[in-house]
Specification:
The structure holds two protein chains of two kinds.
Chain A lengths: L6 H22 L2 H24 L9 E9 L4 E7 L3 H22 L4 H20 L3 H22 L4 H30 L4 H5 L5 H18 L8 H8 L2 H26 L1 H6 L1 H20 L4 H21 L1 H8 L3 H35 L10 H4 L1 H15 L5 H16 L1 H8 L1 H17 L6 H4 L6 H19 L2 H19 L4
Antiparallel strand pairs in A: 1-2
Chain B lengths: L1 H24 L1 H33 L5 E11 L2 E9 L1 H24 L6 H20 L3 H19 L6 H32 L4 H7 L7 E2 L7 E2 H16 L8 H4 L5 H10 L4 H8 L1 H4 L3 H23 L4 H22 L2 H28 L17 H14 L6 H15 L5 H27 L7 H6 L5 H27 L17 H6 L5 H10 L1 H19 L3 H8 L1 H8 L4 H51 L4 H20 L1
Amino acid sequence: MLTNLPLLSLQIWLPTLSAAVVLFLGKMGFEKLGRVLAIATVFACLVLCIPLYTNFDTATYAYQFRETASWIPLFKIQYDIGVDGIAMPLVILTVFTSLIVILAAWKAIQDKATQYLATFLLLQAMTVGVFVAIDALLFYVFWEAMLIPMYLAIGIWGSQNRSYAAIKFFLYTFLGSALMLIVMLYLGMRADSFSIPSFYGVPLTMIQQVLIFLAFLLAFAVKVPMWPVHTWLPDAHTEAPAGGSVILAALMLKVGGYGFFRFSMPIAPDASHSLDWLMIGLSLLAIVYIGLIALAQTDMKRLIAYSSVAHMGFVTLGCFMIYMIVKASGNHQDAFMGLEGAMVQMISHGFGSGALFLGFGMLYDRMHTREIAKFGGIANTMPIFAALFMVFAMSNVGLPGTSGFVGEFMVILSAFKASFWIAFAAGLTLIVGASYTLWMYKRVFYGEIANDEVATLKDVSWLEWGVLMMLVVAIFIIGFYPESLLRVMHSSIDHLIQLSLQSKL
Amino acid sequence: MITTLHNLALIAVLAPLVGSLIAGLFGKKIGVKGSQLITIAGITVAFFCALSLAKSILIDHIQPLNETIYVWGTSGSYTLSVGFLIDQLTVLMMCIVTFVSLLVHIYSIGYMEGDPGVQRFFCYMSLFTFGMLSLVMANNFLLLFFGWETVGLVSYLLIGFWFKKDSAALGGFKAFIVNRVGDFGFLLGIAVILSYFGTLDYATVFAAAPKFVDSTLSIVSGYEWSTLTVICLLLFVGAMGKSAQLPLHIWLPESMEGPTPISALIHAATMVTAGVYMVARMSPLYNLSPTAMSVVMIIGATGALSLGLLAVVENDIKRVIAFSTMSQLGYMMAANGAGAYEAGIFHLATHACFKALLFLGAGSVIIAMHHEQNLHKMGNLRKYMPITYVTFLIGTLAITAIPPFAGFFSKDTIIEAVHESHVSGAFFAYLCLLIGAFVTAVYSFRALFLAFHTSERMDEETRHHLHETKPVITVPLIILAIASILLGMIIVGPMLFTEPKLMGQTMLVPQQLNVLGEIGKEYHGVFSMVLHGFLGLTFWFTMAGLATAWICYIKKPELPKTIALRFSTFRSILLKRYGFDAFNQLVFVRGTQKLSNFFYYFADAKVIDSWLVNGSGRGIQRIASLVRRVQSGYLYHYAFAMILGIVALLLWIVL
């Protein structure tokens, strides 16, 4: 029954519609009803994800659950959506994360609650749109549309310095994508279609490829974010409300990584190849340099934000290592582990980083401070929370059995094929990551009760427990059985590798 | 039969996990008694599974089991799976782990009584057992690494168990980070293996290893290193962390912040021996790399002597035993380096018994002394705690390798094996180990004398309450004491010398490394080995150590002060533990702090964010305000600009 539905369209338009209704209900004074509707909507979306996974054909790289309709025929722009093995897990991640954010808002958000929920429903819809769009301009529309609810979320529900952060966030990401639009228009003219797969066949000279690559790089690097365009992220995170941070970390950053998979590598393979040193360098810089910066933080949320950037370094590293790997070993098979590791890292980062931000949000609700020095001894008063947070910390540290391990492990193992020193630098995360994560954990949770505020803390409520538990389960599923995730992406990654290694010159 | 083995193995590894999860998740509901019951039940099940597996493999000689449980992940041509290898070495390790774990669980009922976190404690301990079993049962590097890191995590959690104490929280942190340095090397080693062998399965890797003898790889351009040596050394870095070998041993003293049962289980009997086990397990790789063998032997032997010396000046009873653990681990590693893997594993087994015994004995003392750990505040405890005294004495005799106690058979063989070895550096290692025997006797008997003999130095209050601890504590001591007496003489023959070998084909060595075979020619049964032991050099070194301790602490108690004055430089070097901690603090801790602050406050916050990002924002504002001035709205401004433009244009054309 479910399979006959236009599943992907529902994933986009159901929450959009629901957002409007929730907003309306809020205006009419039915706040409670609005909340229930919001939760019901996301829950329905998650149920609709089940056939997306179970009916997914892992044997093909072709887009599935495809829906095509004419949109602006004059310019050959189509409403064309579908998922492959790269997009599908990200769609599920989006809905899952959204559910968590909206559940967590039940108690935590009292100010303009229905507007808040509507904002995040819209955000969910637009993010799904980014991942499922096959038409480049449709992709662009969703890409920019994502910014608006996020901007509002930070600007309205953020903390003291929110307008600075919101504007910085908006300008930064918006500037990045301006060039991307130009490239898309150019490619659209060359290919006589805006369908992304048709871009792959466009013959391009080296100079064209490099220009296109750099334009895309600007757009995606800001989102991922890569050094040195990362400084908007800590500000956006520290000022954003907990839900905003979760979405930022779990989803907003992923569209950057997704862009590299979908556009940069297959469209400009030769440029990707010749500029791989730059990408690898920037990725390692993220892993080591940003990791060290995280160590210097005194603000807990900022620390998590920097750690999030450091972990995203593995995504870009896994992507752009493949040229060196294939050159060294001459075997396409060896490229898989890097790319698939990068994909797993994206999903796992969604759970792990999202969980840390969500957990921090619960602390912030109680204590209204981000200063690590103001915490201390929380394990005494919130033992259950401390235990759950330990799981998230361990995932952040990359402990085997948690999702955080899988991506890093795969990327480091395949990095060795490219060069010992890349593996060495990437492997440093084992030490640096453990240092900043556990040092933070020690200062926040261990020790005697630091002050009266800590002494009066209440442990997590049932709802909070449930939400955190969902993340714990997700972290362990990926950690103990990553094949559940890997199997859906093999065909698509295979196709991507072929495209990325095929010279257009 | 295979399915029986398979099921037993699965139950053995999962039972502790189930116990741990129940105690962890429902600890509040089932209460202290409930959690103790469920975890102990889990460990008991695991213990009997291990025994039953041991009977099948060791006695009935059933074909070892090597099978995949499930496919963890696939990528390209690689398949990574979770699978078990149940062979002779595995079952021996399983028995040791579950046996000690079971006793420590029972002991902890008494030791942790009244602690508010009892459920958490038992949950961690069972989780540890799960991790340790995964480690020893793995048939590939993935599961090995999983177990390796899991036990590291639990060790971290348990050292910081009393997390209110800053020293405990810090000790756990330090242990984790130092271990992570080791794991970093370990992971790189695994990466090299995957890259060259294309698989992480032991059997395939071992079978293919001889083909790589001449393979080289270049890490620093211009230098070609043997691939196998690089692999072995990287893996050994992991072992250095876990098994507290120089220079990554620095976390072990701090690990004594954890409750004493943990020190016995994790930081003496099982986890810290994981590195020894790993090297023995990888013997088919190490055999092919003489350089790696040499490094393992020299680092092991150096540690055996130098870390043992630290115990001589230590006053905390637990830390004395901790240093002695490091020293004994050095012996085991040296055995591995000499190619006497079986002797290393044998010492691992006997050490697990007598070291757990010593730690639990120390724990018994600590309870009786109301958590006083300073040896100089004890004395004459044998009067009050006869069972603890006798068992502790047996432990001491075993660790100092007095025949016929368990330690004698394993340690004497190790020293002999290193003596016979032709690996480069063997003579140096032999000297270290021989002098180490003297040092072992000095610190062990010093601790024994100071705690149980000599005058009573505790305060009146404590003395008044001194009495023997409860049976739940003393019974495990007695069991371990019996094992410390008998284990050596029972299994020395089949373990090391007589055919068929207890360990079967698991740790075969090529002819030129077969030192145990050489020693075995002289072996004529347990009795003659004991007799022979009394004539050996090791025994007399030990006796000299015993005599030294006796003179210094019983006969002439004022002597240590004189010696301390006489050798004050040497003493202060020992007290500073050779400066490792100071060095690390200065270079790594402070260095990293400085670097990270520089990166953050200067590079990131100032250069990028303040100058470039917000700078360009300000720049745009400035340009905008300039441009704004141009568009003033006054007609004469525009007219003036137009005229200027025309003039400029004309000039350009004319010129």
